[in-house]
Amino acid sequence: MSPQGALTGLAGAANAVDGCIALSLRRMDRILEIDRINRIAVVQPGVINKAVSTAAGELGLRYPPDPGSWESSTIGGNVSTNAGGMCCVKYGVTSEYVLGLEVVLADGEVLRTGRRTAKGVAGYDLTKLFVGSEGTLGVITEITLALRPVSEGVLSLAAVFEDTVSARGAVSAIVADGRTPSLLEIMDNTLIRAIEAYRPMDLPVDAAALLLAAVDDGSSAQLERIAQLCTAAGASEVHVASDPVEGEMLLAARRLAHPAMERLGKIIVDDIAVPRSALAELLDSTQRIGEKYQVRVAMVGHAGDGNMHPNLIVDRDDPDSHRRCMLAFDAIMQLGLDLGGTCTGEHGVGTLKKGWLATEIGPIGLRTHRAIKAALDPAGILNPGKVFEIPG
Hints:
The chain is globular. By secondary structure, the chain is an alpha+beta fold. It has twelve helices and 17 strands. Helix 5 crosses helix 7 (220-233).
């Protein structure tokens, strides 16, 4: 049985294997409660991320996790994959906002984990165990989320760079200077051109890289400092949004990355995270990998936390193109691990990265994972074929 939400995932976690029942949770789409005093929301798994944000905003609250698919992805899917988003650099990923869960176990019993209190350390943290488990340990049917107060006001800028070295230098300088942007995103020339062709918005199509930064504490001084650091790093132009509407347009450009790339051909979206100090080497080496295997690679990602998304363009009707693309994909995966990173920062393992999970966590880690899976799902009926297989 494979639990499914909006099917926006990119690693195949919700794809049902042959002979498997697909369990859609889309109609479990009620927001059951929003508690302004305790700053929590209780929702069903089929609720769209944007719906939670909108409902919370009406009460002066905010749900920070914002994956690129926030207008269509469900909270259940976000929880199951421990989704991230553009604001992770300041606010972290989904798991940091999940206080409790209602989960239907493999034997049909209903388990409640976590609590509604701001603090609580009684027992094992079963809530965190199910977050990111991709439907392999139980079916999530209710979620208690932590909310935050609305931001003081979002201010944003776009910095244009004529070379990627300067762009990477700006990211390093911003982090080293102790800045806390709510967003710090980078796009390369291939992606800039793809977005401009998809939806013209006067982006600098000749730029080697575009860095987007935002602060949400209303601090113009902090944004000005980030602008200074970008200029010092070699930005040819730094454009500070004049109002929230213009700022939102800049963020909208970033959210168009995936649909824009799809217009160039079939894509495989990679997802790796490395320490911030290794970001420059990741970007440089990824381009060299693309050149080696003659695969067009566009780079976009969350520069502020080292989580990058190389987009590999493939001709699925050409076996040689597919072969070269997968060789490049595997080489980028290995690169991420060699740099002290992880094979996925927010998209999950699904079917796409089962082999890389085993490589990353090693035989003892894999054995421990399998022991937990066997204890909760001895018959292997929950989302079979995902993350890893139980031997025998």
